[in-house]
Specification:
The protein contains 9 helices and 10 strands. By secondary structure, the chain is an alpha/beta fold. Helix 1 crosses helix 9, helix 2 packs across helix 3 and helix 4 runs parallel beside helix 5. The structure holds BIS(adenosine)-5'-pentaphosphate (AP5). The site of BIS(adenosine)-5'-pentaphosphate (AP5) has 36 residues, from helix 1, helix 2, helix 3, helix 6 and strand 9.
Length: about 230
């Protein structure tokens, strides 16, 4: 249930909803899927660095040309590039009511930069075991035009191989190939997993079980996010 509180701020079942949210989790944990649901529920924008970088690659911008080689190998794009695009997004008027960060920060350097750019209310780690991740990423199909994400078994498009939102042919992302998935998981363990300790020490970290149906995961997410 979503209603406006006395201050006009969105609430969930009468409890104030947080406004500046970071979603953490390994590749394929469901960050994008849950961030889209949260964005609709709380009416705040979702900023996904992976989507922004893929858009830059597709357009062939200078950023895209620099980022592509790292992304295709399952490596992180250098901090200065992603910090710049995230800072620009968070300084826009759209982010004033709040935001959901999906895929940023991904290194201690990025988290320290975020501290300087914006205040964060809540950080949620979506925990999913490696075996589930491989099945999710191998079966993911993405729309290269509008960014909608599907899964061949768990969330198929109503139009088969075409996006049911815009009709574009769905693709397997370059980095969803088996050998690149392995490297993305290594990158996550080496560089991103230390953020759990970083945010634990700041008493901002919450964790949810990311396995099971995506609606069940969303209910768990709302439960840890609302301020009681
Ligand atoms: P990015 O696009 O952010 O990739 P990622 O973090 O690896 O995350 P994914 O998009 O793969 O997964 P997700 O957790 O969003 O899961 P999803 O909801 O799609 O980054 C790509 C690359 O860009 C990086 O490798 C790096 O090179 C670069 N990059 C991005 N940000 C960067 C940064 N900050 N710094 C440096 N480099 C950066 O779900 C996955 C699949 O599972 C889908 O098919 C979905 O339908 C399905 N699914 C989801 N939830 C469920 C469920 N509960 N049950 C069943 N199926 C489900």
């Amino acid at each position: 249930m979503k209603v406006a509180g006395p201050s006009g701020r969105k609430t969930v079942d009468g409890h104030p909803a947080p406004r500046r949210i970071v979603l953490l989790g390994p590749p394929g944990a469901g960050k994008g899927t849950q961030a889209q649901l949260l964005s609709s529920k709380f009416a705040i924008p979702r900023y996904a660095t992976g989507d922004m970088l893929r858009a830059a690659v597709a357009k062939g911008t200078e950023l895209g040309l620099k980022a592509r080689g790292f992304m295709d190998k399952g490596l992180l794009v250098p901090d200065d590039l992603v910090i710049a695009i995230t800072a620009e997004a968070l300084r826009s008027d759209d982010a004033v009511p709040g935001f959901i960060l999906d895929g940023f920060p991904r290194s201690i350097g990025q988290a320290e930069a975020l501290d300087r750019i914006a205040r964060v209310d809540s950080v949620v780690n979506i925990a999913v075991p490696g075996s589930v991740i491989k099945a999710r990423l191998g079966g993911r199909r993405s729309c290269p035009k509008c960014g909608t994400v599907f899964h061949v078994e768990n969330k198929p498009s109503a139009k088969g191989d075409l996006c049911d939102q815009c009709g574009t042919a769905l693709v397997l992302r370059n980095d969803d190939k088996a050998e690149v998935i392995e490297q993305r998981l290594r990158t996550y363990m080496e560089t991103t997993a230390p953020l759990l300790d970083f945010y634990q020490k700041r008493k901002l970290l919450k964790e949810i079980d990311g396995t099971g149906d995506l609606n069940e995961v969303f209910v768990r997410l709302l439960q840890v996010l609302v301020v009681r």
